[in-house]
Predict the 3D structure of the following.
Amino acid sequence: METTSQVDGQPQGTEGARPSRPASRRDDALYRRAAFPWYGLDAAYTGPRWLMQAAVAGDGAVEHGSLGHGEEPSVRTEGGADKERFAAVVTVAAHEGRRTADGTGMLEATTVSSAAWLAGAGLLTVTWPGQIDHTLRDDWLDQQTEAAWELADDLEGEVWSSLTLPVDGRPTPFHYRESEYGWVLAGTAGDSGVHLGAYGRGMSAYGLAFSRVEDLGAYL
C-alpha cells in the first residue's frame, strides 16, 4: 500500500520503516479524521490502552492505524522480553483500487492480506532477538519484513491456522500464526468496511475479542 505513516504530525514512508514510539496522547487528530471505524479490544479488557501510529494515503485519506493494549513494548527485548504483555489491533480501511486525488496514480486495493502484512511488520518493529547484534538488526529486520510480506500474501499456506474470535459480539473467522517473537492474526470485521489485523506477545490471542471504538478518549 502506498501510504505515509504519521506520528506526532511527522510523516514517514512506510517502506523500510523502523520502530517508532507510540503517538502522543494529545495527538489524536489524525485518528479522528478517519472515515472508517477504529477497532480495539472489547470492554472485557480493562488494562491500559494507547494510540500507536496512523497512516495516510497519497491523496491524504487516512488508510490504517493501530491501537495498543497492555504494556507499551520496548524495541530492546533483552532481559525481560518474556514479561511483556501487549496486543496491538490494526484497522485497515477496506476499498478497491482507486486513483489518487490528483489523478496521477493508482492506490492499491486493501484486503485481509494487507492487515496481515501490517500486523506482521508491526510485530517485527518491536522485536530484537537476543542473538542479534545491534549492527546486524537492520539486515535481520529487512529479511524478516520480506518474509512477513510473503506470508501475508499466502493466507491459505500451512503456516496459518484458523481462529474464530468475537468482533462486535459476532463470531468472526481469522487467519492466525505464531512465531518465536509473538503472534499475528488477520480477518475482516463483518460489514463495517474494515479489515482487522492484530499482533502481540504475552497475551493469548485465543481469549481476545474486538469491538468498534466509540470513544478514542480511552486511548489518550
